[in-house]
Write a structure and sequence with these properties.
Helices cover 23% and strands 45% of the residues. By secondary structure, the chain is an alpha+beta fold. The longest helix is centred in the middle third of the chain and has 15 residues. The radius of gyration is 16 Å and the shape is elongated.
């Protein structure tokens, strides 16, 4: 299992998150026509760390997770706080990926936008950047 599949496993395995978004957790982009709330995630960068002693994590990655809700800014704040609580952790697994440390490095609100269906219900977004130190399997 790769990092992306492990991250999906971690997010979709959280009842705190799926209680809000259901199964609407997507790699890369939220497909057009999806209802909200929804999430997308992507690996922004990944670096293989080489050392002779093989101590510590073998990889460092930066992950971006975007949360989206409709109709309420407070709802996107609540969803993002649940994601942050899940990913601010140490010594855990994301699927079969062994994670030594995972922590949120930044949070950024996105400007609200209207969906393409012409409704007057605005979509609110918040991006979360996460630094992930993990062992390659």
């Amino acid at each position: 299992m790769g990092l992306e599949a492990g991250l999906y496993s971690k997010l979709s395995g959280s009842t705190a998150i799926t209680g809000i978004v259901g199964t609407r957790i997507f790699p890369g982009h939220v497909p057009q026509g999806q209802s909200y709330p929804a999430m997308r995630f992507m690996v922004s960068s990944q670096e293989k760390v080489h050392n002779l002693a093989n101590h510590g994590p073998n990889n460092i990655a930066t992950i971006q997770i975007d949360c989206y809700t409709s109709g309420s800014y407070i709802d996107v704040v609540t969803l993002s706080e649940k994601v942050q609580a899940l990913l601010n952790t140490s010594s855990t697994t994301f699927g079969t990926v062994l994670v030594e440390n995972s922590h949120v490095t930044g949070v950024l609100d996105e400007p609200p936008f209207q969906p393409e269906d012409g409704s007057d219900v605005w979509i609110y977004g918040r991006s979360i950047d996460v630094a992930l130190h993990f062992h390659a399997t």
